[in-house]
Amino acid sequence: MAAAGVLALATLAVGCGPQDPGADALRQPTAPATTAPPAPSPTDDGKGATAGATTEPATTTPPASPSATPPPAEPVTAPPPTASSLAPSTAPAPRVLLRTGSEGAQVRELQARLRQIGHFGRTPTGYYGTVTAEAVRSFQAKRGTEATGATDAVTWRKLLAMTRTPTADELDPPTERPVAKPDERCLTGRVLCISKKSRTLAWMIDGRVVSAMDVRFGSEYTPTREGEFPVFWKSRDHVSTLYDTPMPYALFFSGGQAVHYSADFAANGYGGASHGCVNVRDKAKVAALFDQVKNGDKVVIYW
């Protein structure tokens, strides 16, 4: 029994550690550098070795302690959305197309379209001034958009949707203000249809406007008469005997009152007034009118 115990101890000693380090290196496969050997189990901690038995230190890399192994990286997650992050961002302001100081064909079209729907009460000029800005502001306010007075992309799209393409006469009309709706007396025959409200004269034949022009009237002290009159005298190069002023292309309709060209009106506009006559500032237009109108044609002056 004693011999068998000695033999068992000798066998265990051989199994725990190689006696020849060189021979052991030939027998043991090389472990991958990145893989640490498993930690010894309780049955491999050397308790079975006898006292006095010689053991060689292990040549393999000892297992790393738990503290040496880096903890697994935690996944990075985005913070939950807050009320402010869920709120819609402020949209950029629409691109401005036209503003005060702009000029050109597109401004003229803008003015003509605004005039179609009653926001611009003058003749298109092609210049974006304070009157145009106020007309745009009025349109924007009525449509529920920010009333800036500048024509941005949103304003332009809304205007296009509500209006039609302006005609040549709408883009370059013959009068500063729109020609007024004709009085009923103007709808038949040959009539000089003159509106004090729109300050326009429309030469009409059987209800059709042949030509139109801007006019001005007498002051409150020398008012232009209202009503229906016949043309009774034509004087191409007339000069007033009362005021000693030229009255070319005069078409007399009531006493000394006549439709005629006025150089003062052409130069100073509505800053002045006549002595009761109907002044025309476009010399070419009134000259053509003079040649077409006949004695006996009607003159209708109304508000």
SSE layout and pairings?
Blueprint: H1 2-16, H2 21-27, H3 83-86, E1 96-98, H4 105-116, H5 130-142, E2 151-152, H6 153-162, H7 168-171, E3 190-195, E4 200-205, E5 208-216, E6 227-230, E7 233-239, E8 246-254, E9 257-261, H8 263-268, E10 278-280, H9 283-292, E11 298-302
Parallel strand pairs: 3-11, 9-10
Antiparallel strand pairs: 1-2, 3-4, 4-5, 5-10, 6-11, 7-8, 8-9
Active site: 260, 277
Keywords: Cell shape, Cell wall biogenesis/degradation, Peptidoglycan synthesis, Transferase
Region (Disordered): 14-91
Question: Can you describe what's shown?
Answer:
- By secondary structure, this protein is α+β, with helices and mostly antiparallel strands.
- Among the domains are: 96-171, PGBD-like superfamily/PGBD (Muramoyl-pentapeptide Carboxypeptidase, domain 1); 184-301, L,D-transpeptidase catalytic domain-like, CATH 2.40.440.10.
- The protein has helices at 2-16, 21-27, 83-86, 105-116, 130-142, 153-162, 168-171, 263-268, 283-292; strands at residues 96-98, 151-152, 190-195, 200-205, 208-216, 227-230, 233-239, 246-254, 257-261, 278-280, 298-302.
- The strands form two sheets. Strands 6-11-3-4-5-10-9-8-7 form a nine-stranded mixed beta sheet.
- The longest helix has 15 residues, at 2-16.
- The N and C termini lie far apart (146 Å).
